[in-house]
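Re: 3-methyl-2-oxobutanoic acid structure - here you go.
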Amino acid sequence: MSVNANRIIRIFDTTLRDGEQSPGCSMNPKEKLEVARRIEKLGVDVIEAGFPASSPGDLESVKNIAGVIRNCSVAGLCRSLETDIDAAREALGKAARPRLHIFLATSPIHMEYKLKMTSGQVLEQAAASVRYAKKFCSDIEFSAEDASRSDPDFLCRVFGEAIAAGATTVNIPDTVGYAVPGEFGALVRYVKEHTPGAEKAVFSVHTHDDLGLAVANSLAAVAAGADQIECTVNGIGERAGNASLEEIVMALRVRGDFLKADTRVDATQLYGLSRLVTQVTGVKVQPNKAIVGDNAFAHEAGIHQHGVLMNRTTYEIMTPESVGISKNQMVLGKHSGRHAFEERLKELGFTVDTQTLETVFAQFKDLADKKKVVSDRDIEALVMDTAAKAPETWHLEHWAVNTGSALGASGTVRLQHKDGSIQKEVSMGDGPIDSIFKAINHITGREPELDLYEIGAITGGSSSQGETIVKISKDGRHWNGRGVSTDVIESSIKAYLSAINAMEWDLEAGASK
Ligand code: KIV
Ligand code: ZN
């Protein structure tokens, strides 16, 4: 890892909070833990693990993460309420470096219409909540929600009160993605210069991408003196998303000469982490996405290809290897041994326990019998299927479909419940998938909305594995499932059943509280 000898900007990763709370990005507790481990390995300064007061499930999963992450701070979000702070401190009880992150809105629009509070009340509540939190935790971050639409002098007063009450970081969010870079940089500079006690606090920014300016705004803030950037892997987040972590890190790494700043992040972990987040959320990045998109390093135009062949720097400002895109061209197939397989897992960023390794290696061998070449994407899918799947309330024993242009479709499925009982069901439907999903609903007694059913090939070619992503919801709660198989009907069944299992796990956890 090469880090420029520049000012170090702290990276506060909020993939598991602002990212995860956005539509279609929900993750199960195992997936969150796996993502947290990989973000820690990346070398960020803070992981925001969730919003503990928002649900018992969120509290539990912040607890899990806080109990495992040791090399960076773990933050829990709270409104500026004692009950929220209590939930967050409970969740962070086992954290090596806990941070309580309190937020309260400071813009006239939010104070009048959302909070129904006067500016005086907001000032008082901000100070009181920080003072309360400080009794339990030395590391307190205070965020002025909708800061970019707030009166700058009022912002300075709120931050001044928060710092006097014990806040160690103050955060300037562009909550609605309204700011433009020159203006946002000027705001950061002004607030840093005019906040009483500013020298005692770290100044952070948190930007959203509604105008496509989240990264530009964060970089303008760095140029104006910001010390910390809040961002998410793949830029997932509310509405148009948050500032993308990989773009921030690489902009600072590649243009440290101009920005005079860098981060501690090991950029070679970026691609693997981006792939992991894509896998667990089922939300793909667009092919032309900077740093991690499929085409980010592809040179199509002849003139570009010629230039790159002469000297890569003609058209490449960074190498694919610098962000962790493997240069390993070794093909894995049915003759590959355990050692080569394990090495490839490590290169892809996975650290798996012995049992997972055994299972995934056996699946790899099966797959290699069906396909000549097993790609990195195939391997990622196998690992994620084993390592981060919700426990199986229902296990697929077997299935069959009968379909054709003249007849309707019928689907048969046989499932084993975790108590050992076996159930079989045959259903008619509008096509094979519909019939099988209906049969599964009938057996499990769950009838969720099917919000997304997406099927694709992991790699090209007719022997490619089919990957199915399913997103289901019920009463405003969302679950994802993923299934992989060389048979697309089977991958669909696996995906649907894994979403049902995630639902069962979540509802069971809620019921046992
Ligand atoms: O966008 C926002 O303002 C937030 C805060 C809670 C930091 O996510
Ligand atoms: Zn946000």
